[in-house]
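Q: What does the assembly look like in three dimensions?
Context provided by user:
Components: two
Sequences:
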Amino acid sequence: MGGIWSGFLAALQWDMMLFTLIGVVAGVTIGALPGLTSTMGVALLIPLTFGMRPEVGLAMLGGIYCASTYGGAITAILINIPGTPSACATVLDGYPLARKGEATRAISVATIVSCLGGLFSTVCLLFLAPPLAQLSLRFGAPEYFLLAVFGITIIVSLSEEGLEKGLISGVLGLLLSVVGMHPLTGYLRFTFGQSFLFDGVPLVVALIGLFSIPEVLELVSSESSQSVEVVGTYTGRPLQHLKEALTLKWLILRSSIIGVIIGIIPGAGTDIAAFLAYNEARRASKTPDEFGKGAIEGVAAAECANNAVTGGSLIPLLTLGVPGNAVSAIFLGGLLIHGLRPGAALFAENATITYGFIFSLFLSNILFVPVGFIMARYATRILRTPRSVLAPAIVVLAVIGSLAIRGLAVDVFLMLGMGLLGCIMKYNGMPAAPMVLGLVLGTMAEGELARALAIVRGDVLAFLLQLVTRPICIVVLALCVLSIWQGISNQAKRKRSVGQEA
Amino acid sequence: MTKKLMSNHGRLSMQSVVRLMLCLTVMVTLVLSIGVQASNYPNKPVIMIVSYAAGGGTDVAARTVAKYAEKYLGQPIIVENRTGAGGQIGFTALAKSKADGYTIGLINVPAINLIAAIRSGVTYKMADFEPIANVVLDPMVLAVKADSKFETMADLVEYARDNPGKVVIGYDGPQTNNHLQTIVMEQVLGIELTQVPYTGAAPSIVATLGGQVDVSMPAAGEALQYVENGQMRVLAVFWPTRFAGLPDCPTFEEATGQAIAAVGASSRGIGAPVGMPRDRFEKLQDAFAKAIADPEFVEKAEQIGLPLQYLNGPDFAKLIEETEANLQQYVDIMK
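A: Here is the predicted structure of the complete assembly.
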């Protein structure tokens, strides 16, 4: 307990607070700019922390991590480009809300629930780290494979316009995820000898193209007024939405738990957590048909879950030295560089630093709220920008973003190609979200299936037996069956009600 | 009139003297500055290409050494991550950049050799690089979970000989140096393991700690913290001498009585495109030699778990050559 108290006092020192704030401001910017991800932000600033006291350096990195995970929501809601992959489920309802003139509401609620999700996960990190860390070691290849399959079943609920079109989009995404090196053998597939395709289609580039280009074309092709049609004159203040966000308490709790669990599992990231929470929110909703058309619950679930990943991913890192995702892998470097060795001893021997860092995470999650509110307050003004200015500005952002991620000029053309695909899909009423899900989870599903089979030396029967005998496998398998069954019955219900109306 | 002329003349001559002096000053400055430029390389920031993602092992090593080399080079070093294709994109970019001493990069041995040997359509060759300094040398180790039934290398070899394919070994990924060392070990010991490549060092270590695989083949520097925490044990180090950070862990030869080629050992050094002026090469080699000897850098490297092994340009070139020759015989198995 003495350690926790000295950590708390350490977090209250002025330099801790100052560098946390610097991290948060940098983080929101990194998150909001497409092409700059949390991983890059934390990695690029690590050298700056060399000269700082360990807890101060870690606090700054924590600020970047929490704030950039949230920052992606701003661009997602305002211009339909997920600023980071964490926000790819946020666009689904965030942008429709902005088009309805409710950008202020969407960003305010996203900010509040992000904060709450982040705080929840930090509490878990503070009090439940050792028992939860054990969970991270129980995931083997069969569990990961089923988790990916479970994620893929969400396609059903993302398919507003009909299951067939959703499935086509999802399968296209899975096919695209096959491009590049085979995860086990290194065999190159569909790369046409081009080295930029060896790692597959980069997710961020695909996201930017798929979401931004079709939207830009729609902006410039509509004949109506100069700016985006903003229905109604909505001039709410951000704080008014605090109450609205708090009425979603069960959704926030559910999404936070999903986020923390996904965070703890090494290798599963913020994007997967956001999609899973989105799906659960939709299943629990009384008006699931509103999802995808501007449901505030959709934005809240995705944003709450992705920030809940932050604390979760630090649990296995601090207790076992096992990084929960790409960002926490960089944190590992940040710890080691100060001579701090993660593990049970870290909490005992370096209590002030460790708990000081954890307490600074509370601050990080709170500090991005005012930044977000300022954005929310003036958000609708961005949407009132004349189309002739807004559309090219979005294209510029999309080009810079796709260039920034790997520094390859060819990625810009890849982005435009994905944009063209997005346009064709949109014209045919195919949703883009299932394709993103296919891209995110395809590599994971394929790699883990191959790995699981390799471990049992290709014995398919033994592998299938594992799926129904390993405890976590049984749980995830049940979730898969439930998700598919509920999805199909919902689709059937929809068809019936449409039939009755006609 | 005469007076006026005189004064006029005087004024003119004054003007021309001033002009002449101005001209001379400008010319002298120009000439001097050109001279200064030639001898005072570098006079602008140097770009360091890293072929792996920001935050990874190579990146952290690069950024740390860059920070100290800046001091001796007198110019900032800008780390540029040109990631993709397991390093091929970055290595190609380095090979194709201008040999003026303003672009250098990290050379990962044997990854850089493996890519060129295994893949088709690789447009760089080892002769395209000018090695400047080796920084890190990290040998492979064979590691098990702390409570594994394999206490020694002998236990493992005996079990694996009796049960071919029963022992599952995890490593970083296909066609990596970890993969290479695993193959060489199988050949030397005459055993057959079930190989499971993961997607990097962290996932394969998680799989080892979680008991998903029986043994794994990480780099010594990566395994170090888990060994010190008591989560992992190292059965053998794939290097002729013991590893400084793991003084109690036997070498492969000590553990099995057999010699083994340490082809998997991962070297990370500095290189540049071939053909830069000699004085610039000397300047770079000197700066990195001093940086790597800097006590502050040595301390930082120890904290991050970077096993240092300085080699100057020619010695680093020799290491690359030897690796190149050694791994040819294994290329076909790895494809």
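Follow-up: Chain A has one domain: 2-227+238-501.
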